[in-house]
Amino acid sequence: MTPNKMFLLYLHTVTNSCFSARLENKSWLWHFCYGHLNFTGLKTLQQKNMVTSLPHIQTLSQVSEECVISKQHQEPFQKEKSWRARKALGFVHLDLCGPITPTSNGGTPIKVLHSDRSGEYN
């Protein structure tokens, strides 16, 4: 640290580099450029001349990893409980844990937690 409370930085210069990717199959390139549009949709664009300079599209049997991951579906969580107890002890939740050391005063090494969802037994 300098007398005026500044810190000196010692930086090293780094050689600039550029990475590029090249696809041999133009069908994959157009698939990526159109947001992973399916190959049937790309062929429709080509057959109806909806896009200028679109090359011949081959229907490929492979699926890109991004398409598989993005098209997986998960149901949303329920906002309300699907089942609710109507009376005491109608729905009991138990948590078992153990063996616990040291043991309880009665010598029991297992702990059981009871919970009644209707709220009358705790």
UniProtKB/TrEMBL annotation:
<dbReference type="InterPro" id="IPR025724">
    <property type="entry name" value="GAG-pre-integrase_dom"/>
</dbReference>
<protein>
    <submittedName>
        <fullName>Retrovirus-related Pol polyprotein from transposon TNT 1-94</fullName>
    </submittedName>
</protein>
<feature type="domain" description="GAG-pre-integrase">
    <location>
        <begin position="7"/>
        <end position="72"/>
    </location>
</feature>
<dbReference type="Pfam" id="PF13976">
    <property type="entry name" value="gag_pre-integrs"/>
</dbReference>
